[in-house]
Input
Amino acid sequence: WRQMGRTGEARQLLDALVAELEGPPPAPGAAGVFTERGRLALEMGDLEQAAHWLRRAVALAPTDREALYNFVQCLQQSGQDAEAREYQARFQRADADLKRLGQLTKAVLRQPHDPALRCEVAALFLRNGQEQEGVRWLHLALSEAPDYGPAHQALADYYQQAGKLELAAHHRELARAWPH
Output
């Protein structure tokens, strides 16, 4: 509806979705709905509402390129240049990570048994909040080289942060055993 210029209908639909998704904790997909609601407010010139929705989207999905891009636009239009620069830097890092991810996936196809490539892919996913995918890639690295220390260390760090201390200790020990 938004793209067809039917902003009233788009707002009603999005507001209904927001009402369904809100609540502690926000439902999966809430960040996308908040981004779309913020973009609609931005297009309608309601910078205050745009900032409200886009700030919420970025809080839920701190590396989402679409949310970051629209939030930067909103901040710039609102004259909040210092904050806009901060979020622009985050957008650029997420964009660079996405480009690097494309390069790495091609490299993995050329060198499918290289655990270092898989670890780098995992690190990008983890840094961008895609924890399940990051952990999956670390396990893929270990499926190629079960004693690969950097993958075990990355898993130890992840599990430590996630509060899974036994798993963290297990992988930390395996990482120490790896010859440097």
